[in-house]
Amino acid sequence: MFILLNKVVTLLFWVLSIMAAVQGWDGLLGWLPTIAVVVAGIHVLETAYFWMALKHKSANPVADAVQVFIFGIFHMRRFIQTETA
Hints:
mainly alpha
């Protein structure tokens, strides 16, 4: 349940970031596109890690890689938990 809530919040962050970039929001919300670029860079690294180390644990590695890019560690966590168990 907690992971699902985190995924919903992450998806909301991406939607708001895209809206802020398209509509040119000012003030504090104007920083969302910049923060989104930083988060996307981190998610690229997480996706690369997933692809190199964890894709063998996935039934559909391409779909899981896309979800790791969107949701980051919140999606990759189930693969990491099975890795350490």
